[in-house]
Design brief:
Structural class: mainly alpha
Order of helices and strands: HHEHEH
Shape: globular
Radius of gyration: 17 Å
Helix content: 25-40%
Distance between the termini: 26 Å
Number of strands: 2
Length: 119
């Protein structure tokens, strides 16, 4: 559950992202009880995306759209509405993608490595 302080920090972070990318943050969509991709809150978001001069949806990560299956469907619906889905954080690379893209990367058994994506 998101505390009021975390909610404020999220809004501030998204507002700064939008400012730095010359976008206007018009509202914050939250859907804490997503049982499926077609919730009342998400349907309202799709309605807003149909308004003139609405560019897209900014989200910290895909996971903020819901669990994997719901997030994937919501992403398709956002794009079908003609809007952009802008991710503040890129998805984490898979192990095979990391090993191909990072020179000298050799995973060791029993060792966990965390790579940070560029901001």
């Amino acid at each position: 559950m998101r505390t009021p302080r975390r909610q404020e920090a999220l809004v501030a972070s998204l507002a700064e992202y939008c400012r730095s990318h010359e976008l206007q943050l018009s509202g914050l969509f939250t859907d804490r009880d997503a049982a499926g991709p077609a919730s009342v809150a998400f349907t309202g978001l799709l309605d807003v995306l149909g308004l003139p001069d609405v560019y897209g949806v900014v989200t910290p990560a895909v996971s903020h759209l819901g669990p994997k299956a719901i997030a994937a469907e919501r992403g398709r619906q956002i794009e079908a509405a003609g809007a952009q889905l802008l991710l503040v954080r890129r998805p984490r690379p898979t192990r095979s993608a990391v090993s191909r893209s990072v020179p000298g990367y050799h995973p060791h058994s029993g060792t966990t490595r965390v790579l940070k994506a560029d901001s």
